[in-house]
UniProtKB/TrEMBL annotation:
Pfam families: ROK. It comes from the Bacteria. Belongs to the ROK (NagC/XylR) family. Keywords: Kinase, Transferase. This is Glucokinase-like ROK family protein. The keyword Kinase applies. InterPro entries: ATPase_NBD (IPR043129), ROK (IPR000600), ROK_cs (IPR049874), WH-like_DNA-bd_sf (IPR036388), WH_DNA-bd_sf (IPR036390). PROSITE patterns: ROK. One of its GO terms (molecular function) is kinase activity. It comes from Phytomonospora endophytica.
Amino acid sequence: MSTARHLWDPLHVRVLRQLRDSGPLSRAQLADRLEVPRPRLLGELNRLIAAEQITEAGPAKSRGGRRSTLVELNPRLRFAAVDLGATSLDIEITNGRLEPVAAYTEAADLRKGPKPVLARIGELLAKARSDGVYEHLDGVGLGVPGPVSFRDGVPVSPPIMPGWDGYPVRELLAREHGCPAVVDNDVNIMAIGERHGGVADSVDDMFFVKLGTGIGCGIIIGGDVYRGIDGCAGDIGHIQVTAHGPTCRCGNVGCLEALFGGAALAAAATAAARSGNSPALAERLAAHGAVTARDVADGATEGDAACVQLIREGGRLVGSVLAGLVSFANPSMIVIGGGLAQLGHILLAEIRSVVYRRSLPLATGNLPVILSELGPRAGVAGAAVLASEITFEQWS
C-alpha cells in the first residue's frame, strides 16, 4: 500500500495491516513502525484486544529489560478469496496473515449466469465451514473477468459474462456470509496479489499484464490500483494493433485480444496443425481433437518452428502495446501473468525486445519485464488482500 497516503488511515487500520504483514510484534515495535506516541497506541491496542480483533501472543525477545508481550491478529480470523475466471473457479480460505488454510479449484462456466455460479461459490464455502476450516468469515474478496464498478460492487457490461451486468454481487456476498465483501476486476486483484506477496512486493508503480482468455493490465500507481473513473482502466486487450484482421468480441476490428487472446491462439494453433505447418500440433490435434496454449508451449520446447513463430508473433503484438504504455506512464516494473504466461521465456523475450526497442530509452533503462512469481495464485492472493482491507476499514 502507498506509504504516503496510508499514513492518514485510521490508527486501527494501520495496526491491523502491520500485524497482517509482519506477524506478531511487541507494543514497542508497533509504536516504532507506526511512528505514533506510545500512550495513543496502547489505548488502541486495548480496544482491539477487547473487540477480539487482536490477541496477546506470549513474551517478546528480551531487549535488555523486562520482556514485553507480543500482540497478533486473532488466530480465528478467516478471509475467503475467490478468483473467478472465464472457465475456472479458485477459492482460498486464509488466516489473518493471508496464509492459505484451505483451497478449492474446479472448472466453471460464467455463461450460466450469476445465480448458479455464486451458488456454487456458496456451496464450496459452506463445505469449508463444515470441514472445520472456519467458524465464520470476516471478509470476502472476489475477482471477475470483466469491468467492475468498484464503488458499487457490480460488473459493468462484461463481454464474456452474459447476465452479470449490474448484478449486485458484493451485496449478495456480504448478506449471505454476514461480513464485508469486495468485488474487483480479475487483473486488478492479480496485480494486488503480486505486489503484496510476489515479485513486485517492493514496487509502487507497476503494470501487471494478464494474458489469458482475455488480455488486461492491472495498473498500480503510488502503491494503489488505478481503476479509472468507471472501473475499466487497463483494458488493453481492446487496443487496436492493426487496421485489418478478425472482429473482436467488443465489435471492433484488429484488437490485441482478437489476435492473441486464448481463443485466438487456439484458433491459430489449430490452423497450423491442420495445414501441416506444425508437425507437433498436428500430432496433438490427432490425439486429443483440440490444441491448447500448453500444446504450443510444449511444441516450442521441442523446437517446432510454427509454435515458436506463434509465440513470437504474440509477444510482438503485446510488446507493441506495452511500449506505448511504458513511454506514457513510465512504470518501474512490468509483470506478465495469466494462463498464456505458460508460453514462457520465448514469449517474455519477444515482449522485452519490442518494449526495449520501441519505448523511450529513459523509460526502459531500469525497467524489468518479468514473469509472475505467484503464477495462478496471484488472483486469490490479491482477493485476500482486498478482503482484509475492507474488513479492517469497517472495524472500529
